[in-house]
Amino acid sequence: MTDTPQAELISSFRPQMLKFARLQLQDDAAAEDVVQEAMESALRGVDRFGGRSALKTWLFTIVRHKVIDALRERGRSVQVSSLERDEADMDEAFEALFRENGHWSPAGRPRAWGDPEEALAQRQFWQVFETCLEVLPARTARVFMMREFLGLETDEICTTLQLSISNCNVILHRARAGLRQCLSTGWFAGEGAPC
Q: Which of 35, 85, 147, 168 has the fewest CB atoms inside 10 Å of its own CB, making it the most exposed?
């Protein structure tokens, strides 16, 4: 990699890119390869970067495409045992949010979020969001990121991770509920601090 200001700036995002790639690929060596390829692509195309988006957004778009390519190249096979995490604690936490009739318990009822558009515009929100994502079990976070960040369809996620559609939907529900709970206490409660 050359020693230019663009190369230094792109390199500064390497730890975040690597963290994302590791979460998705569950393989340190493959994540390193994907990030290296993404950084090389970014350096080759930096002259074409028009600044229509933030540099970080542009870089993560490149990483995202490289991760999707790597997942597809693997033949959509991942060892299920590498994805298993104990989600019993998460189940108990969600059960406490509801009454037996399925309605929200008074303590579990979501708080009003105020103006979400204003919060989304704030950089600190995304730092809290990232922290909340890290609190989720690894498999739950991975499925959420595959759906919401990589934009994979449910059937493709199911094939890649050897999940049933109903299990995938349950995991996505848990991820969204876990993120909502964390954001409600760590951001929208007014503290603006990670959960």
A: 85
